[in-house]
Amino acid sequence: MIHIHEVTGSNPVEPTTIMKKQSAGLLVYRMKEGKLEVLIAHQGGPFWARKDVWTIPKGLYEQDEEPLVAARREFEEEIGQKSPNGRTIALGEITRKDGKTIKAWAIEGDIDVSKVKSNTFEIEWPPRSGKIQEFSEVDRAAWVDINSATAKMHTGQDVFIKRLAEKLGATFAPPKQNSLF
User: Is the distance from CB of 128 to CB of 24 less than 8 angstroms?
Assistant: First the structure.
């Protein structure tokens, strides 16, 4: 939490509290034909429609909320199915460039991606059109092997997959990027 004190002239203004944005998410995994797969979600809405950028199901939580409870709630809201039961594996936290933190846990399960039904949000679309449209937070989900998943993940979130592979002792060899040289 950051406190900001503003001073206008000689009269100090009451401190303003800016809450750091924080998200919590679940990385569901399974073994399929001897390979470790993870469930990843494609963000919905017009901004992400033509981008091949995926995420773990996650969402914001309040300062006084238990992060793992929030991760389970957000999973259900974004995937439309209960999160799997069982032992969770803490995957730690990352901090994005914008200061937002993301905490994640892994849990073994087998979710039917053909039944994904996300909650929705509304935005003005197209911009400055005056038209409010409704979009799904997540427009689809997929099971992807861990090596391919890291290439699709939103910046920084691939570390959660790497940590899961380490904790489970899985072989991890992400696809090599083509070199310009």
Answer: no
Instruction: Kindly list the distances between the CA atom of residue 110 and the CA atoms of 34, 60, 138, in Å, as whole numbers in the listed order.
Output: 15, 24, 18
List, for residues 44-59, the tens digit of each pLDDT value. 888 888 888 899 999 9
Q: Stretch 148-165: mean pLDDT, rounded?
A: 92
CA distances (Å), 179 to each of 80, 174, 175, 176, in order? 40, 15, 12, 9
45-101, pLDDT tens digit by residue? 888 888 888 999 999 999 999 999 999 999 999 999 999 999 999 999 999 988 999
For residues 68 and 23, the answer to whether their CB atoms sit within 8 Å is no
Structure-token match 């038209």, residue found: 131
**41 C-beta neighbours (distance < 10 Å), count:** 23
Encoding tokens for residue 103? 């905490």
Rg, Å, the chain Cα set: 19
Report which secondary-structure segment, H or E, holds 164.
Answer: helix 158-168
Per-position b or e across 128-149, b if 16+ CB within 10 A of its CB = eeeeeeebbbbeebbbbebbeb
Max Cα separation, the chain? 70
Lowest-pLDDT range, 9-23, 24-38, 133-147? 9-23
Residues 6+ apart with CB under 8 A from 115: 80, 81
